[in-house]
Specification:
Length: about 130
Protein backbone atom coordinates (compact mmCIF):
# COMPACT_ATOMS: atom_id res chain seq x y z
CA UNK A 1 0.00 0.00 0.00
CA UNK A 2 1.41 3.38 -1.02
CA UNK A 3 1.35 6.09 1.65
CA UNK A 4 0.43 9.67 0.87
CA UNK A 5 2.47 11.17 3.67
CA UNK A 6 6.06 10.04 4.11
CA UNK A 7 7.00 12.53 6.83
CA UNK A 8 4.70 14.15 9.38
CA UNK A 9 5.74 17.12 11.51
CA UNK A 10 4.08 17.67 14.88
CA UNK A 11 4.25 21.22 16.24
CA UNK A 12 3.00 21.51 19.82
CA UNK A 13 4.36 23.02 23.03
CA UNK A 14 2.72 20.31 25.16
CA UNK A 15 5.09 17.38 25.61
CA UNK A 16 2.28 14.97 26.56
CA UNK A 17 0.29 15.87 23.43
CA UNK A 18 3.42 15.36 21.33
CA UNK A 19 3.93 11.87 22.77
CA UNK A 20 0.26 10.87 22.41
CA UNK A 21 -0.08 12.21 18.86
CA UNK A 22 3.23 10.68 17.82
CA UNK A 23 2.05 7.29 19.10
CA UNK A 24 -1.32 7.66 17.32
CA UNK A 25 0.41 8.51 14.05
CA UNK A 26 2.70 5.50 14.44
CA UNK A 27 -0.34 3.28 14.98
CA UNK A 28 -1.77 4.27 11.58
CA UNK A 29 1.31 2.76 9.87
CA UNK A 30 0.84 5.36 7.11
CA UNK A 31 3.92 7.45 7.92
CA UNK A 32 7.62 6.75 7.47
CA UNK A 33 8.94 9.46 9.82
CA UNK A 34 7.63 11.79 12.52
CA UNK A 35 9.40 15.11 13.08
CA UNK A 36 8.67 16.60 16.50
CA UNK A 37 8.94 20.33 17.16
CA UNK A 38 7.98 21.94 20.46
CA UNK A 39 7.53 25.46 19.02
CA UNK A 40 6.73 27.31 15.84
CA UNK A 41 10.26 28.76 15.80
CA UNK A 42 11.80 25.29 16.01
CA UNK A 43 9.61 24.10 13.13
CA UNK A 44 10.43 27.12 10.93
CA UNK A 45 14.16 26.66 11.61
CA UNK A 46 13.89 22.99 10.66
CA UNK A 47 12.02 23.80 7.43
CA UNK A 48 14.45 26.58 6.46
CA UNK A 49 17.41 24.27 7.07
CA UNK A 50 15.97 21.60 4.76
CA UNK A 51 15.65 23.72 1.61
CA UNK A 52 18.57 21.86 0.03
CA UNK A 53 17.44 18.43 1.21
CA UNK A 54 13.88 17.97 -0.06
CA UNK A 55 13.78 14.39 1.27
CA UNK A 56 13.60 15.69 4.86
CA UNK A 57 10.78 18.17 4.31
CA UNK A 58 7.50 17.00 5.87
CA UNK A 59 4.55 16.28 3.61
CA UNK A 60 2.04 16.84 6.41
CA UNK A 61 2.05 19.10 9.48
CA UNK A 62 -0.16 18.83 12.57
CA UNK A 63 -0.04 22.33 14.07
CA UNK A 64 -1.26 23.30 17.54
CA UNK A 65 -3.01 26.67 17.65
CA UNK A 66 -2.37 27.69 21.26
CA UNK A 67 1.35 27.93 21.92
CA UNK A 68 3.36 30.58 23.79
CA UNK A 69 5.59 33.02 21.88
CA UNK A 70 4.33 31.95 18.42
CA UNK A 71 0.83 30.52 18.08
CA UNK A 72 -0.30 28.39 15.15
CA UNK A 73 -1.64 31.34 13.17
CA UNK A 74 1.61 33.27 13.58
CA UNK A 75 3.45 30.15 12.37
CA UNK A 76 1.23 30.16 9.27
CA UNK A 77 2.12 33.81 8.54
CA UNK A 78 5.81 32.83 8.44
CA UNK A 79 5.10 29.51 6.70
CA UNK A 80 3.45 31.17 3.69
CA UNK A 81 6.72 33.07 3.06
CA UNK A 82 8.74 29.85 2.79
CA UNK A 83 9.91 28.42 -0.51
CA UNK A 84 7.13 27.11 -2.76
CA UNK A 85 9.05 23.82 -2.87
CA UNK A 86 7.94 23.41 0.75
CA UNK A 87 4.49 24.99 0.79
CA UNK A 88 3.32 23.36 -2.45
CA UNK A 89 4.19 19.88 -1.20
CA UNK A 90 3.00 20.02 2.41
CA UNK A 91 -0.50 19.85 3.87
CA UNK A 92 -1.42 21.30 7.28
CA UNK A 93 -4.11 20.38 9.80
CA UNK A 94 -4.48 22.53 12.90
CA UNK A 95 -5.17 21.24 16.40
CA UNK A 96 -7.01 22.98 19.19
CA UNK A 97 -8.20 22.02 22.64
CA UNK A 98 -11.17 24.35 22.16
CA UNK A 99 -12.94 24.88 18.86
CA UNK A 100 -13.40 28.63 19.05
CA UNK A 101 -15.56 30.01 16.22
CA UNK A 102 -12.93 32.66 15.40
CA UNK A 103 -10.22 30.00 15.15
CA UNK A 104 -12.43 27.87 12.92
CA UNK A 105 -12.98 30.80 10.55
CA UNK A 106 -9.28 31.73 10.50
CA UNK A 107 -8.25 28.13 9.85
CA UNK A 108 -10.83 27.70 7.06
CA UNK A 109 -9.66 30.94 5.45
CA UNK A 110 -6.02 29.82 5.30
CA UNK A 111 -5.21 28.13 1.96
CA UNK A 112 -2.55 25.91 3.59
CA UNK A 113 -4.92 24.42 6.20
CA UNK A 114 -7.11 21.49 5.21
CA UNK A 115 -8.81 20.91 8.55
CA UNK A 116 -9.09 22.10 12.14
CA UNK A 117 -9.18 19.19 14.58
CA UNK A 118 -10.19 19.14 18.23
CA UNK A 119 -7.80 17.61 20.75
CA UNK A 120 -7.43 14.83 21.61
CA UNK A 121 -6.79 13.30 18.21
CA UNK A 122 -8.20 9.89 17.41
CA UNK A 123 -6.78 7.19 15.16
CA UNK A 124 -9.96 7.38 13.06
CA UNK A 125 -9.40 11.10 12.39
CA UNK A 126 -5.79 10.43 11.49
CA UNK A 127 -6.68 7.56 9.19
CA UNK A 128 -9.22 9.81 7.46
CA UNK A 129 -6.58 12.52 6.98
CA UNK A 130 -3.58 10.35 6.18
CA UNK A 131 -5.18 7.34 4.52
Amino acid sequence: MQTRFKRVMLIDDNEIDLKINSKLISLTKLVDEIIICSSGDEALNFLNNQLENKKLIPTFILLDIQMPEMDGFEFLMHYKKLSKSITDNCTIAMLSSTLDFGDIKKAEANPHVIKLLKKPLTTNELLALLG
